[in-house]
Design brief:
single chain; alpha+beta; ten-stranded mixed β-sheet; 27 strands
């Protein structure tokens, strides 16, 4: 470095230092770096880019399709048949392996084609001072110590400490998840200040919405807040879904069963001195009979059907196993703004002239009304009333726009100002009409230091003459006022009590003031001299109201045994108020804030998450800690999010749900599913589809393993008692993949059962097959095996033709499957309790499977492939 300073250590907590101290620590200047110095620092710190995570290659994806205990067994079986010269059996086994590999690879390859969203988000252009002159450079060239210029519309290219600002505001929803813009400042804030309140910093990827500023870069690349989040996402790695864990356990159980059965068969064959070739062929048949070859295909079909159903409910699934995971979840950690709420600031109460008024309607619809204790009121009819003036000030001291059509508004601007415009419209005061009459001639923009905004107007109708309208923080506006709306003595304590009462209800409170001016024309060169001696006209309390459908969805979750936890960047009071309305928390409950979380360790947090349902003012790392704490107490966790700040939690959760409308690409890339309408109710509806998906996975798996159990018993009995094999390996694969497979795929279309959303979630450790279904597997397998062996020996003894006897046994097993698929349609209801027409796919699929098998007995190609003969 030019001054010999080692800049490996960037400024710690730059928000807690004044601007000069930050400049000094970075060995920079307010005039920027020299080109030579910038190059030296670029060589030292590297480019202002996020590290790109390497993707998995095609070869790795292909190999992954063969990493399963069941696939290993099939591979060994294929090799044995090849050595024995049973090429037909080898070919059939190879075909099954190829089909499974192609389907699995196709799905995973599509999922792997994701954008490098974090990398793209961090790239931008920047205006920077170099050698005292303003230049435009690629954001990748920025280094710590660079001085950058920012203005409305810019995307921030690096983390930077503000040195100078004018009416400067930023949209940081990307990081905080909250839609309210942040007014920026140059003043230091306490070291313990949370990310969302570090108002003297700007962060990579956020957007400037208003004003201008000059700032010095304090972090680039992985040293930015965004880079830290990207590192957190990479550290988490891939998280196994419950379905993947269950399938792994299931595969191990099947593998053990196959090992035991093959060992018993081998011992029995050796004891009976069976020819080695025949014995190996028998063991292959035994292994093949135990493997549910059609399961990977059916599993993909079940999940794909659910993906289509969920898409109809505004949920897009990015990874197939996420379907079942959603149905397994026992806790949902939800963002507040836009998911549980409408993301539309709405004025709900106005206190003016000592009276309280309620505004009906939510969101940006303007067809609500203003009501007091006696009923509906018309503020437009009383132009000198405090209520009229409070609405008038809110509409005029306002830079948002509203175009009304059929009660619905097309809006642009800050959400808070839009809420004020909608409130005025409900009272009959439309901004476009007001602006035609009250011409704005000057303004004082809002700044975080002053905490108010003012606009100056001329009444072209001459009634009000010239006047000033002021809105801002209650304590600030009160300090500017001398009288109440009627010109009488102002009761400041009463006003503050009203403001505190509204705030306790979770409302954001703005105070309104008004003053008619004697000067004509107004001295616009010094407008601040006109904002003293104001008349206080009222308070407006607003909130982002909960969605009506979200309230019902939360109740549905609670009936289903699913816990809902609110995790938000908003203030604790507001979060608790919304949570109480939604039914997530009770009036006496507490909210944990980010400051609280910093004071406790993970063990204490694990104890607290069982009782606390509202977490407010949290950072990305806090959200991640909350999710992992819920997992530690045994929950299968779904978590929602839309900002970059949500990415680590989205990836660490059992299922991450990103918002489709407000969500960033980063959040979507880290998630398993995308909610296209940003609505919590859609997530709850998808939970139902997830439960249906798991039910169908369980039904299809039960059908496959119970018919497989029948084949195992039949083959093993033949080995033990020295009988000829009732099936050849190719015939078993025909059963498992074709006739059985067609019905199993059709079973995947089974509609949900009536109690799917009133049952409690499945235990986290429960396998794919329940204890009850294992019991039924043993019973049904024994019945089908005994019936098949009876027909096999009856035919063999009658005609002495082994090929014909095997054909009869094969056909008998196909007929057993036709009836047994009906038993598999419900775990708790009889075959006679569900109409076959509820699932027309199964009805037709069963007929098709039976018809294909009958046809195979008479077609030369299938006769050769399966070694079957026509039946008389």
């Amino acid at each position: 470095m030019s001054d010999g300073r080692d800049l490996r250590a960037l400024p710690e907590q730059p928000w807690a230092l004044d601007g000069e101290a930050v400049v000094e620590q970075l060995a920079g200047s307010r005039g920027g770096l020299s080109v030579h110095e910038a190059r030296a620092r670029h060589a030292h710190f590297g480019p202002n880019e996020l590290e790109e995570e390497p993707g998995r290659g095609i070869a790795a994806l292909i190999l992954d399709q063969f990493r399963s205990p069941l696939i290993y067994i099939l591979l060994v079986a294929g090799l044995v048949t090849l050595v024995l010269g049973e090429y037909v059996d080898t070919g059939v086994i190879a075909a099954v392996l190829l089909i499974n590999a192609v389907m699995g690879f196709t799905q995973e390859y599509r999922a792997a084609q994701s954008m490098a969203a974090l990398r793209q988000l961090a790239r931008a252009h920047a205006r920077v001072l170099r050698d005292g002159r303003e230049r435009e450079v690629d954001a990748a060239e920025l280094v710590p110590g660079d001085v950058i210029m920012l203005e409305a519309g810019d995307r921030v290219p690096a983390d930077a400490r503000i040195l100078h600002q004018a009416a400067f505001e930023a949209d940081e929803s990307l990081l905080t998840g909250e839609s309210t813009v942040v007014a920026k400042s140059v003043e230091p804030v306490p070291a313990q200040t949370q990310l969302a309140d570090r108002v003297n910093l700007v962060f990579t990827g956020t957007t400037i919405t208003r004003g201008r500023a000059r700032a010095i870069v304090v972090g680039t690349g992985s040293s930015t807040v965004l880079g830290g989040i990207a590192d957190s996402v990479r550290e988490i790695g891939e998280v196994q879904t419950p379905l993947q864990r269950r399938m792994g356990q299931f595969a191990r159980v099947i593998g053990i069963i196959i090992l035991i059965a093959c060992t018993v068969g081998m011992v029995a064959g050796v004891a009976r001195a069976e020819p080695l070739g025949e014995l190996f062929l028998s063991i292959v048949a035994l292994a093949v009979s135990a493997i549910p070859e059609g399961l990977p295909i059916v599993l993909t079909v079940v999940l794909a059907i659910s993906v289509r159903r969920m898409a109809q409910r505004n949920v897009i699934i990015r990874h197939l196993p996420a379907v079942e995971t959603l149905g397994s979840c026992t806790a949902i950690g939800s963002d507040k703004t836009g998911t549980l709420t409408q993301n539309r600031m709405t004025v709900q109460r106005i206190v003016a002239g000592g009276s309280s008024f309620e505004l009906t309607g939510t969101g940006y619809r303007t067809d609500g009304e203003v009501r007091d204790a006696a009923g509906s009121v018309d503020p437009a009819a009383e132009p000198d009333s405090p209520l009229h003036l409070a609405l008038l000030v809110g509409a005029l001291c306002n830079d948002a726009s509203l175009l009304e059509s059929d009660g619905q508004a097309e809006v642009h601007g800050d959400p808070t100002e839009i809420g004020l415009l909608v409130a005025a419209a409900k009272g009959g005061l439309l901004k476009d009409v007001l602006e035609d009459r009250y011409v704005r001639i000057a303004e004082i923009p809002f700044e975080s230091e002053t905490r108010f905004a003012a606009t100056f107007h001329r009444d072209d109708e001459g009634v009000r003459g010239h006047f000033v309208a002021v809105k801002g923080a209650p304590e600030q506006v009160l300090a500017m006022c001398g009288t109440d709306a009627a010109g009488g003595q102002l009761d400041r304590e009463a006003v503050m009590r009203d403001a505190e009462s509204l705030a306790a209800q979770g409302l954001r409170v703005l105070a309104m003031a008004y003053r008619e001016l004697d000067e004509n024309p107004i001295d616009v060169s010094d407008p601040h001299r006109h904002v003293q001696g104001m008349r206080f006209v009222g308070l407006q309390g607003m909130i982002d109201p909960p969605r009506d459908e979200a309230i019902e969805a939360v109740r549905g979750c609670q009936r289903s045994g699913i816990r809902v936890v609110m995790i938000t960047g908003d203030h604790a009071t507001t979060a608790l108020a919304i949570a109480e309305r939604l039914g997530i928390a009770a009036a006496e409950d507490r909210a944990l804030t980010g400051v609280d979380l910093d004071r406790i360790d993970d063990a204490e947090l694990t104890d607290l998450v069982t009782n606390v349902s509202v977490f407010a003012r949290v950072s990305p790392q806090h959200k991640l800690r909350i999710v992992t704490a819920l997992q530690r107490v045994g929950h299968t966790v779904a978590v929602t999010g839309d900002g970059v700040n949500d990415a680590p939690a989205l990836k660490a959760a059992d299922i991450g749900a990103a918002m489709g409308r407000s969500g960033t690409d980063v959040a979507k890339e880290a998630s398993d599913m995308v909610v296209t309408d940003d609505n919590f109710a859609s997530i709850f509806a998808a939970v139902g589809e997830g439960r249906v998906a798991f039910d169908n996975v369980r039904k299809t798996t039960f059908f496959l393993i119970s018919t497989g159990a029948a084949e195992i018993v039949a083959v093993l009995a033949s080995l033990i008692f020295g009988f000829p094999l009732p099936f050849r390996p190719a015939q078993i694969l025909w059963l498992n993949v074709v006739t059985n497979g067609i019905q199993d795929v059709a079973l995947a279309f089974e509609p949900g059962e009536p109690d799917v959303l009133t049952r409690k979630p499945r235990p986290r450790r429960e396998g794919i097959i329940s204890a009850l279904l294992w019991e039924r597997t043993a019973i049904s397998g024994a019945v089908m095996a005994i019936g098949t062996l009876f027909i096999f020996f009856w035919e063999y003894n009658a005609h002495g033709d082994l090929g014909l006897a095997r054909t009869a046994a094969l056909t008998t097993m196909v007929l057993f499957q036709v009836f047994h698929v009906g038993n598999s349609r419900s775990e708790h209801r009889s075959i006679f309790a569900r109409s076959p027409l509820l699932n027309p796919f199964l009805f037709v699929g069963t007929l098709v499977a039976l018809s294909i098998h009958v046809a195979s007995l008479y077609l030369p190609f299938t006769q050769f492939l399966l070694r079957v003969e026509p039946l008389d």
